[in-house]
Amino acid sequence: MSDLDQLDDLDLLDDDLAFDDDPITPVAAQSTPQSQPQGKPSVGMIRDIPVEVTVEVSRRSLALKELMAIEPSSVIMLDKQEGEPVDIKINGVLFGTGNIIAQNGKYGVQVLSLVDNDHHE
């Protein structure tokens, strides 16, 4: 199967990609749209990429002998108190903090604050 045949199998949105008649356009020959400041990449192509959201309640280190003693009825106590904020991570990187909530029989996390990871300024 050729590379072009594999591209046909991809599920891409037409408004996310703009192709000229030539299927391969050198990067240097591509023009930057006037509405988009130079140096700022478009998020159009990446906005539907799934990311993993993790809510980390707490961490605990155990000695190997403690780990080996765990049974189905065991309880592992955590460092955080009930009601303390939990960490929200995106692909393993701290994104913010929140509170665990229960709504309509499901658990969720209410975002309290976001971490400023913008180190470019």
Automatic annotation (TrEMBL):
The keyword tRNA processing does not apply. Residues 28-39 have a biased composition (Polar residues). This is Flagellar motor switch protein FliN. It is a peripheral membrane protein. One of its GO terms (molecular function) is cytoskeletal motor activity. Residues 46-115 form the Flagellar motor switch protein FliN-like C-terminal domain. Pfam families: FliMN_C (PF01052). PANTHER family: FLAGELLAR MOTOR SWITCH PROTEIN FLIN (PTHR43484:SF1), PTHR43484. It is found in: Cell membrane. Its main location: membrane. Residues 17-44 are annotated as: Disordered. Keywords: Cell membrane, Cell projection, Chemotaxis, Cilium, Flagellar rotation, Flagellum, Membrane. It comes from the Bacteria. One of its GO terms (biological process) is bacterial-type flagellum-dependent cell motility. InterPro entries: FliN-like_C, FliN/MopA/SpaO, FliN_T3SS_HrcQb, SpoA-like_sf. One of its GO terms (cellular component) is plasma membrane. Belongs to the FliN/MopA/SpaO family. Gene3D superfamilies: SpoA-like.
